[in-house]
Design goal:
Blueprint lengths: L2 H7 L5 H15 L4 E5 L2 E6 L2 E9 L4 E7 L19 E6 L7 H13 L8
Antiparallel strand pairs: 1-2, 2-3, 3-4, 4-5
Helix pairs in contact: 2-3
């Protein structure tokens, strides 16, 4: 098992279930994506460019699916959370019912479409 999978599986419920659901949606939407473990977080890459990463804030009780706020990424800005972050916006989930698959898929497709070719972290 790779470290990114371990990160997901060692989380407490309901975070683990939310991360697994998000992982499935990402892999179904962008099958070419690769999940790597960098900066102690699962990060999904497409063509060597980061698309999104997953983060659990256990203290505040939420899961973030974070997207780099690229210049051309401009959908669902009304629900994406920036919270003192200049270049990252996220979909935030407190419980499994919060996950809106349609919104997540649209954000994933937009992030993939607007990715910077050749970007490496």
């Amino acid at each position: 098992m790779n470290p990114a999978e371990e990160y997901i599986l060692r989380q407490q419920e309901p975070s683990r279930s939310m991360l697994l659901e998000v992982q499935v949606l990402i892999e179904q939407t962008l099958p070419e994506c690769e999940m790597l473990y960098k900066w102690r977080l699962p990060i999904f890459y497409s063509e060597d460019c980061p698309i999104c990463y997953l983060n659990v804030n256990a203290k505040k009780g939420f899961v973030d699916v974070c997207f780099w706020a690229r210049k051309d990424f401009n959908i669902h800005m009304d629900i994406l959370v920036s919270e003192k972050r200049k270049f990252v916006k996220s979909l935030r989930y407190f419980k499994p019912e919060d996950i809106d698959g349609k919104v997540l898929i649209e954000c994933l497709e937009e992030a993939n479409k607007t990715k910077k070719k050749g970007y490496t972290s």
